[in-house]
Amino acid sequence: MTNSRTAHRGRLRPALAAAVAALTALGLAALPAGSAHAQEKRLKAWGNNRSGQLGDGTWTDFRTTSTSVLGLTSAEVVKIAAGGAGPTNGHGLALLTDRTVQSWGANTFGQLGDGSVFSHNAPGQVVNLSNVTDIAGGGAHSLALLADQTVVAWGHNNYGQLGNGTNTDSSVPVRVEGLNKVIAIAAGLNHSIALREDGTVWAWGYNINGQLGDGTSASRNVAFQVSNLTGVTRIAAGCNHNIALVGPPSGPSKPTSGNAVKTWGYNATGQLGDNSTISRYTPVDTQGIWLGGVSQIAAGCNHSMAVTDSDNKLKAWGQNTSGQIGDGTTDYRITPVPVPGITGVQLVAGGREHTVALLGDNTVRSWGNNGSGQLGNGTTDNSTTPVTSLTALTGVDKLAAPVGGDFSLAN
Questions:
Q1: Which of 114, 111, 90, 89 has the alpha carbon at shortest distance from 100?
Q2: Poorest-confidence range of 14-18, 25-29, 386-390?
Q3: What are phi and psi of 397, to 5 degrees?
Q4: Is 6's pLDDT higher than 50?
Q5: Is 96 helix (H, G, I), strand (E, B) or coil?
Q6: Could you tell me the domains of the chain?
Q7: With contact defined as beta carbons under 8 Å apart, do 358 and 397 qualify?
Q8: Beta-strand pair 260-265/280-285
Q9: Which helix (H) or strand (E) holds 62?
Q10: Which of the 8 DSSP states describes residue 373?
């Protein structure tokens, strides 16, 4: 299928259509200064834009500083997610206050969910989708959790990552079969996982490296339970590995050492953190002492992160080719190591080879690969230690980066 680089304006809310047309023609990244909404805080994006994944109405190759996603104010965005399957490929998702979902970027396999396979450089609505409570972006597929605690998916389905019992791509949302009572979702490059309210984790899609955690390497187009894993409260997915937090999350008001980090799947660069580079087909314990417990987990393509302690410090492990671990080196880490100088971590997200974190001082810091400006600091120089991406914005409370892509989102 052809990946069109023509803006498909019919997807946009009518009030924005004229603005999109003008902005696309002029190559502008935000609404005109005279617009009534020009001064409102907006969803921000930076990094690679070859697929329109920054959503700013242009096809500019990349942005080294933040640009505004067209037409979406911060106030109407409830959650954000990012997908991508390569350095120049990616798509963005935004869950709005009306519980509908907007999407933009690459759409070769229908991952935007608008019934087409045409890429778009500005947001438009995912069709036949309402009452959404959470979203996730994979390599070239997307997931949504509905208010009835079921899951729908759309996009690429060559390995069954849509979970609907077929291996046929879908450009509109389809129901993940046999899955209910779900409270959280995550998407890898070509697989998907879901956390049920009973603390079990279910997975479907690509499984050659054991990323489904069922003890086999057989890909599955319906959800199967991850083996020997219960009591889970958080999940995250990398390209081909997964992380689960077992036990209640810690925090300043409720520190606990009674939780554990479990991982499974691909491990060639140490992303499982079990002091080996052996892929695991069922969950194993990540090594290390989690003083004060773990409050958050996150995954990049081949690296992993955990926010620890009552001070919200950060540990990372796995691939470090571009400095995405943030410890000042490019050495792979097969067990967790501290990220120096980073405290007060509120949120963290991982991209293909970069990491983004929101700190308590309302700054966004990034580190790792920066060939497309995905660190947002005005350069294309890689950094093995954190640099500042955003300082002008206040009230940032959402971050996203694609496990297989080179851009970042903040709201």
A1: 114
A2: 25-29
A3: -140, 15
A4: no
A5: strand
A6: 131-247+257-291 (2.130.10.30)
A7: yes
A8: antiparallel
A9: strand 62-73
A10: S
Question: If you ran DSSP here, which 8-state letter would residue 6 be given?
Answer: S
Q: Which residue is associated with the tokens 């979702």? A: 185
Q: Using an 8 Å Cβ cutoff, are 259 and 248 in contact? A: yes
DSSP labels for 194-251?
EEETTS-EEEEE--TTSTT-SSS---EEEEEEPTT--SEEEEEE-SSEEEEEES----
How does pLDDT run across 302-355, given as a tens digit for each residue? Answer: 999 999 876 789 999 999 999 999 999 999 999 999 999 898 999 999 999 999
CB 241 within 8 A of CB 193: no
**Tokens coding 306:** 């955990």
Helices (H) and strands (E) in the chain, counts: 1, 28
Integer Cα distance of 314 and 385 in angstroms: 13
d(CA 195, CA 364): 28
Q: What is the phi/psi pair of residue 233, to 5°?
A: -120, -15
State phi, psi for 380 to the nearest 5 degrees: -120, 25
Among the listed residues 170, 123, 138, the one whose alpha carbon sits nearest the alpha carbon of residue 16: 123
Q: What is the end-to-end Cα distance of the chain in Å, rounded?
A: 33
Sign for the pseudo-dihedral over CA of 16, 21, 27, 28: negative
In the structure, what pLDDT confidence band is assigned to residue 29 with cuts at 50, 70 and 90? Answer: very low
